[in-house]
Every structure is written in structure tokens, then in C-alpha cells.
Amino acid sequence: MASELVVQTTLLARAVAEFSATVYPFEVPERVRLVSRGFNDVYELETPERLFLRIGRQARRTLRDAELEAQALAEAQAAGAPVAVALRGCDGRFAQRLQAPEGDRAVLLFVAAPGSVPEDIPEHAYAQGRTLARLHETVLTSSTAANLRRLDIEVLVNQPIAWASEQLRDRRTWRPAFATWRPASAAISRRCRRTSASVCVMATAMATTP
């Protein structure tokens, strides 16, 4: 049962090693290290193949969201896009469930993406643009495209503001701020839509540039 007193746990390397060997078809990794912590906790697993275990935050990404994300990446790679793909677990699914004190967390295991560390030079910027353009051109299957969770204005702006407003509605000192939140949210939404449209145009241009 999830605890209301826990927001996010950081797992010990030993716990991650034991969990991964339980849900994926390999032995307990000899070494596990935490690479980054935040929206996702990412651990590097020392196995014959270089792998990265990504543990999503509870309530931020469901098991279904993670499964569809991995499916979309697999379809993108099959179409020729240079993306890192997830591995399937012993149950045949990409996404695995990790039971943490704060609730269930969605887990994906990725193969390390080959390549070099990007530098702040025109050649690398151009290569990144071409890669993003190829990814934007990828045509997913209708079922994947229809159900894939999208990080749009609603998810990134409107929902967090609505949640914060609900949490702070009983605090008198915050009431004056509420009147400005909705106009600010609308302005951010308009700005993001314009930016999104510009990115799509740039991606199309990059894809058609020899």
C-alpha cells in the first residue's frame, strides 16, 4: 500500500540489481550505479551489454504510458530513425512495475545509444537537427499514435496550474494570485503553440535539405 508520507524514494543499487534480475532475462548485474535522479531515476547496469534502467516517478507516467512509449521507439527504429530502444521483460512487455513506498513506478530498460558526446559546433547542431527531422517524419501505427501520451500544453501547463490552484485554494494569501494564473496560463499556451509550429516547420526544412 502506498504511503502518503513518501513522495519519491531513491532505491539502493542492490535493490535495483535484484529487481532487474527478477523481471528481465539476465543474472543479477555485478555493478549498478545511479546516473541521474529527477523526473526519472536512471541507473546504469553492468552486464555484457551496456544497459540503462529508467524508473519513472509515481503518478507521472503510468505503466501503459511507458509501454506505448517503448512501442513507439521500436516502431521509429524499425522505420530507420536512430533512437535508443527498450528491451522486453520476462513477461514479454516493455514496461515493468516496480512497487515503491509511494506507489507503483513504471520501469523501462534501454540499450545504450551509440554515438559521440555532442559539442557546441555547427556540425553537431546540424546532425541533431537532421536526426530530429527524421524522428518527426516517422509514421507510427495507428494504434500507437492514437494512444501515445503526449507532452502537450494541457499536460505541461494547464494541468500543473490546475493542481496547484486546488492545493492552495484555502490559503488566503494566494487568492490574489489565482486571478493572474489563468491569463498567464493562456499566454504560455499561445507562446508554446507558436513555438511548436515553428519547430515543425524547421524539422520539415531540415528533412528536405540535402
Short description:
This protein is an alpha+beta fold and 210 residues long. It is built from six helices and five strands.
Structural notes for this entry:
It contains six helices and five strands, in the order H-E-E-E-H-E-E-H-H-H-H. A hairpin with a 3-residue loop joins strand 1 and strand 2. The protein has a five-stranded antiparallel β-sheet, with helices on both faces. Mean pLDDT is 83; it is low at 201-210. By secondary structure, the chain is of the alpha+beta class. The N and C termini lie far apart (56 Å).
CATH 2nd-level architecture of the largest domain? 2-Layer Sandwich
Main sheet strand line-up = 1-2-3-5-4
Q: Report helical residue fraction.
A: 40-55%
Q: What percentage of the residues does DSSP assign to strands (E)?
A: 15-25%
Give me the count of strands: 5
Global Rg: 20 Å
List unreliable stretches of 5+ residues: 201-210
Features:
2 domains; disordered C terminus; single chain; 210 residues; 5 strands; five-stranded antiparallel β-sheet; alpha+beta; Phosphorylase Kinase, domain 1
Blueprint (SSEs and pairs):
Elements: H1 13-23, E1 31-36, E2 40-46, E3 50-56, H2 63-78, E4 96-100, E5 103-111, H3 122-137, H4 142-147, H5 153-167, H6 175-208
Antiparallel strand pairs: 1-2, 2-3, 3-5, 4-5
Helix pairs in contact: 3-6, 5-6
